[in-house]
Amino acid sequence: MNGSEIFGAWVAVFLTLGIFSYLYKDNPFYKIAEHVFVGVSAGYWMSMFFWTQIQPNLFGRLWPVPEGAISGFFMRTWYGIYNFFGVLLPSVFPDGGIDKGHGTHPHFIYIIPFILGVMMLLSVVSKWSWFARLGIAYTVGMAAGLRAYAFLNSNVLVQLKGSAVSFVGLDWFSLTDASIINNVIILIGTITGLLYFYFSKEHKGTFGKVTRVGIYFLMISFGASFGFAVMGRISLLIGRFTDLITYGSSTYNYASLWVLLLMIGLLAVWTFKGDKKVAS
Amino acid sequence: MKDKQFWSVAGIIFVLFMIYWVAGHPYFVSERSVMFWSILIVGGVLIYSTRMAKRGEKIFLRTIPGLKAVEEAVGRSTEMGKPVLYVPGIMDMDQVETVAGVVVLGHVAKMTARYETSLNVPVSRAIVMKAARESCRESYLLEGRPDLFHNDMVHYLTDDQFAYAAGVNGIMLREEPAACLYMGKFYAESLLLAETGNSIGAIQIAGTASPSQIPFFVTACDYTLIGEEFFAASAYLSQEPELIGGVKGQDTLKIMAVAVMLLATLFNFFHDLNMISWDVLGFLTVQ
Predict the structure, then answer these.
(1) B137 shares its domain with B36
(2) Fewer CB within 10 Å, N side or C side of chain A?
(3) Which residues of chain A neighbour B134 with C-beta distances below 8 Å?
């Protein structure tokens, strides 16, 4: 076990217990863990997006490594721009082009996302901040158009097909498999659940009773989903406890134990001082 | 048949389509005809309903308690002199729930501008930050209070899901908002946010279409807009005829969907008994 691994374990223990200390109340340890978490993750994601998306997928397509020597005025100018950027940022724009498996010819269609990206950046200049609206409009419009077809298929047609249940050749009842009673429940639950979301009629009388059945079905499904998700969260908690137990061993110089004791001690002092301040 | 223009255009399109069909309908993928009819019906019903609302025909919309509570929540914040916290989810503007969340934010911003209440909108995506800022700025301008708007009311925290949740929780504990509104797409952070809001005694209203997160909001929030209720929220809050017409159109489509479900079940039953040869499940499958 080298020093950096042990140091990493101590940091992990401190941050884990710092976040857990929130169960007591908002305190300096939680604040430190929260700010480190937010700050580091913001920087990490920015770096990740740049090196996994912008550099390989955008710049890598605009300026791939060309096949042979660059010929023609336009291409020489195009790669001249690249070389200019390369002088400023050689790690982003390496000499000769970016080889990320996007062929040898520039994909000029990618100038559109490049321009939209620049427009988003212009929002830092108040005079030109309206340019960013074009980027937002493109994102929303593109997503709406692109997903309309897929949503209509997966959220409507597949659901309709799934609701057309079978009643032939099945047992009357089964706890695990399809059965006539189960299929009747599916059909009634789907229809009444859907009718609950009918807004242009007051939920009164017979219609109100039908929609009430629908909300019962919804609540039962939410309850089942809740239980399932809680089980998932418990497994996450067990994962953190397993790590804390591992880091509490002699291999890591009893990191969990020492950090826990130190934290409890400091929290006690901090609380005591706070109480005295309030009293005075 | 009140909308003559609509029916005239529909008739012309029908005639043109019949000519195209008789001419051998090249490029028409018959295996996907169900999708073709679906797009045609959904589009037609929505356009018709929107035009109907625009013409001024009265459309009734039932009350949704969660939406009425939004104004109460902002009013409560005003009375207590505390801010309103608005969380537009953790996903980007390519998610329909985030778009709906930003639209509702615009209405909430109008209320906070009207009541001179502080508004705090932490976001986790750069594009959402820009869109939410534009939405708030416009609302404050429309209410005649541009002096109350400042860019920092919509601020970026981080893209990371749990770091964002930790950041928002910290804001809740330190600023103690009187109202917390969660409107957008949420994942596992939903309960972390809602539980913290509950612990500080804030009135909480959530709106999402994420089925796995609705239970957590139902448990920890005072009001929850479930799925379609959330998407209808902007129509309710704005009372704009185009949006109300859209809600009416969707209601019509829901009745059609119920009818299709019952008919499909019936046809499937007869098909299973070998009484008819037409396979309805095959027809509903997009190849």
Answers:
(1) no
(2) C
(3) 133, 136
